[in-house]
Structures are given as C-alpha cells and as structure tokens.
Batch of 3 targets.
Target 1
Amino acid sequence: MLLNCYQIELIEAGCDEAGRGCLAGPVVAAAVILPKDFYLEGLTDSKQLSHKQRDELRPIIEEKALAWAVAMVDHEEIDRINILNASFLAMHRALDQLVLRPEYLVIDGNRFKAYQEIKHSCIVKGDGKYLNIAAASILAKTHRDEYMAALDVNYPQYDWKKNKGYPTIAHRNAVINIGPSPYHRKTFNVTSPQLTIEF
C-alpha cells in the first residue's frame, strides 16, 4: 500500500514527469498536493495501470487534490537544453502554477534541480511508494497521451495515438523510412530495429 506522503509536518507536493524517453513530442510534468487523509482505490504508479484505469483515476485526482498543475517543455526546448534539464524545467513550471504553495517537494527519481528555496527529497521509484507522486505520474502521463493523440491526427504515419512518441519498432521504422516530423527531437538518435551485432 502506498503512503500518503513522505512527511506530515509541511504542505507537500509530489512531482513526476512523462515522456523522457520519447523520440517526439514534449516532456510533461505534474505537481500534486493531496489532502492528508486522501485515499483512492487503485492509485499507483501510472506504468502499472492500463490506459483505461489512468483515465478513470485522472478526474478523481483533479477533483480531490488540494492543488494540481501540469506543464510541458516542447521538443525544441528539449533539443536546446537536453532532456534532463527539460524534465526539471517542466516540473518547475508545474510548481509555478500551483494555487497552493508547497512547503516540501517529493520528486520521482534520483536527481532534481532545487526549486526556489523549498526543500525536496528525490525518491527512486517514488511513484510506487507515495500517493502524491503516483497521482502526479498519472496526470503527467494522461495529459501527455492526450497531447500526442491530438498530434496524431495530422501525423498518422508515426502512430502516435498508439505509441505516444516512444521508440517502438514501428515508430523507428517510420522515422527511418519517411523521415522525422516537425515534432521529433533532433538530438535523439533513431537506430534501425533491424541492426544486429555480428560475432
């Protein structure tokens, strides 16, 4: 069972991102502040849930949270500042938008660039340990999936509605055979799925 938060003395926001490993589209981050007594059946790391489950949990999180926000850094910014810095920037932008100021931050992962003067802790696999990070992971994932599905309307050849920009075999083949779209990250290498190592 996931814990409600990392500490109980201060107003705590959980932060997570989605899209770091994608070939196309933005990296999206969410910040969520939950009530102290919050509990939601089925809430866990978004990667452990189906698309349907995430979509069902999202409106409940958005309704019950004391504050939540989602922000993105687009593919061009990612190319300029690199994906790690873009992930930090997306989290900072989400935190900027919170209507309730957090006093403590818990970040999914092992690295973070300090936000203002607010203390933080990095939690490896935190989306499977704390409800506020799990909630942030679901919001980041669902909002990003929605964005990529909208882009897919004009770029169906890359199948973003299905792969969301991640480097599936079909997606990599499409980039190699057709070329990149305006939304692909130029600094991300696309290798052929057929490449094998000869001994």
Target 2
Amino acid sequence: MRGIEDIVVQPPQSATWQVHLDRSMWVGGVRGLMLQALHPLAMRGVWQNSSFQDDPFGRLRRTADFVGRVTFGSPEEADEIGRRVRGIHRALRIHDPDTGRTHRVDDPELLLWVHCAEVSSYLEVARRGGLGLTERQADRYLREQRKSATYVGLHLADVPGSCAEMDAYFKQMRPSLRVTEEAASTVRFLMWPRLPRELRLLSPGKPGYFPFGALCYSTLPDWARRMYGALPEVPAAAVTAGLLAFRLAVDALPEPVHDRAFMLATRRMLRASRERLGAAGYDVSKGLKGLTDPRRWPKSPAA
C-alpha cells in the first residue's frame, strides 16, 4: 500500500495543509507580491521578464499553481514543475540600470527573497485572519516550506525555518530595500489592476476590487507601508476585522466554486489529489479543505 509521502508532497497532517487551504491565501498572495516589489533587483526581474503589467491575475494564478503542486500534488508533479521553473529562471537575466550590470534571475539571494516574502505573507495573513495556529505550528509551517524552496533551486539550510529566523532575515534585508518607480507602479496596479481580456466583461465591477487591494496593502508590515506611503493608515483593528470578514465570506464558497479561480491544469491536479487521498482511506466527501479535520483521516494515517 502506498505511503502518504507517495500521494502528496505535504500530508493533511502538516501545518502547510492548514495554511494553504485557508481562503485568506488570496490576500496573502497579493501582499506577497507587494512585499517582493521592495527588492529593487527582484522587482526589475519581474518587470523585465514577465507579462505582469498586462496580466497580474495570470501571475497570481501561476503562483497558485506552483504552490498547489508542491503542496497537494504528487512528488512527481512537484518535481516536474520544479524542473520547469528552474529551467525558465536559468534562461532569464535582469539588467540593473543603476549599475549597468546584468544578473541572473536564479541568483540564490533573489530566489530567497521571493520565497520569504511569499511564505511569510501566507502565514501572517492566515494567522491574523483567524487561523488558530500556535507558535510551534507556525514554526513548523516555515520549516516545512524549506522543502518548497528546494523546488526553485534553494538549499534547505539557507532558508529560514522558524518565525525567529524569518524575523531576523527581514531585519537583515531591510537596509537593501527601497521603493523604485517599478515598485510604486506595482502597488498602485495591484490595488487598481487592468483586467485581462477574458475578464473585461467584469470591468463595471472593477471599483469593487479596490477594497480587496487596499486590504492586501494594509496587511503589509508597518515598515513596508511607511516605505510605500501609498494609502492613509487604517487602524490595525479595522484591518483585522476586514481580514476576518473576507475569510468568512470566501470560506462560505463550496470548494468546486472556489476552485474555479484556478487555472484548469491546477483544478485537474487538485481533483487527482482528492482521488488519490480517497483511495488511501481519507474521507474526501468535503473536499481537500475537509481534511483539515483529523476525524476525516484514516485511523492509521499514511495508509
């Protein structure tokens, strides 16, 4: 009988499962992009090598696909997307107009910044939004995310594996961060994005997106918001209340409806994951999110 490690990269018993199935991930994902933009070289890498300005939702969905595969996918699916991402990064370069130098996109320092900005955002937003993780579980999440970092080419030992290590990393990085023109444009764009062609019919409702973008911005660390100065400060209690309300509203969506926001390939991967877990004895009648309840696990997990 197959072990759970042959079925999914991260098992339902992991802290990663708790965080990555939390619907606040949508806020955490946009917040992560805003935080990443503060690294001048990382921001220029995105600006020069992607269609982010034309399709920000595509960037978010591709990130969701990667995160999904290295969480809920099979080891083979995670290895495949890791090879694909590393291959793309290996071929890309960044021109730094400040120095005239050319840098590799897969520079370990840049990869580490992107990873830390992303996973710290997922964790902090989920916890603030009401996901009841203890300090030990939060540390466990970051320790588990070291494995995810290896898929983009980082080494386990180089990646923060606890909240204290993550805090120390950001403290070390802050002197090298600044708001470039590209970063300022990115934050404005994430709060008022251009809709992709296939979603242009939704343009009349675009003003309704701004509260979501503002919520993502308001969850940034105090020091990051001070650097940007893009919006007036909102009381912390109001931001937390907004997160709680967002999480409650999106949690009310049935899993099949919620999953329509993902790319078709991602939805197929999630469906295959449910089928494998069901065959292994997990009760998937409530979807993957239902497996955050230990009562739906086999009596002997890792069947």
Target 3
Amino acid sequence: MMEQGFTALTDLVDLGGPVIAVLMAMSVLGLAVAVWKLLIFELESVGRTAARGAVGATLDHVRGAAQPPEVLRARLSAQLEADFGKLGYGLRVLELIAQIAPLLGLFGTVLGMIDAFRTLQEADSSADPSLLAGGIWVALMTTAAGLVVAIPASVLVGWFDSRLDAHERLARNALEAALAPDVITAKPCDQRNLRVAHAT
C-alpha cells in the first residue's frame, strides 16, 4: 500500500516536474504547522477562556497587585500583546503558503505550456495534436496542485485568526473586569452615582 502511494507520488513529480515537488513540500510544511498550532490552541484554550495558559498567567498578576490600575493596565496590556504574538507565531508560514502556492502553480503551467509549444514547433508539419493536448493537461495540473495547497491553507489562516481575535477580546474583558470590578458589576443606579461623583 505504501509502495503504491510512493509510486503515485513519484509519477506525479515526474509529470509536473520540480514545481510539483515544491508544492508537495509546502503542503507537508503547512500540515505540520496547522497540527502544531491546533495543539497549542487546544492547550491554551484559545477563543474559549482567558483563564488558562500564558494569557491566564498574565491576568493572574492583577490579583493582589499594589500598583494603581492605570499602571497595571499599561504593563499587562504590553504583556498580553507579547502573549498574543507567541500564540500567533507560525501563522505567517500558512499565510505565505496560501499566497505563494497559486503563483507556483501558475509558474509551472507557464513552463509546461512553453515546453508543449516548443515540442510542437520541433515536430514541424508532422505534429501530432495529441502531443500538444498532453502537454497542456500536464501543465494545467500544476495550477490545480497550487490551488489544492493554497485553499486549505487560506481557510486555516482565517480560522486561526478568528480564534485569536476572540481570545484577545476575552482577555481584554477579563483584564478590565479585574482592574475595575466595581464598575463592571455595578447596578445601573450605582453607575449613575459613580458618574455624578466623578463629575463633582
């Protein structure tokens, strides 16, 4: 079974040339990055709760801190930015794969078309149209391979970004709730009293 799969892969590389080989390597890299980020997101509960992982550890510094809320807000906001940067580390690779794979596929198609028309020219008047047709479908195969690699990578990037955005909103809300619990939990009448007291 594995030998048949390996033979099919080698035949595909022989047909599409080095462009197909590069696209296959990019697909393996993209799959590895996606699995790695899925594990990280699951361990950190990204998008579900801000109480776990590195973000939760940062928010724990609010409890028992003797510094003013403004100072804590500035310091912890900077730390949260660093935490979000670590969570998003590696997604740039998926973005590059989503952008480069279609271009590589198009590049392979152009090379294949050039080769097909060169073969047709060398055959001169005895050219067989089937040779041209065969060269064209092989050339177009690289475009299809590029899209097969790029589309899942683009979908994954969008999904990871949406989870990170949700996680950031949860963390920001948790930070504000920890810094100003009286304001967050105050009843409507209490909030009016707070505004009046602040105005006076």
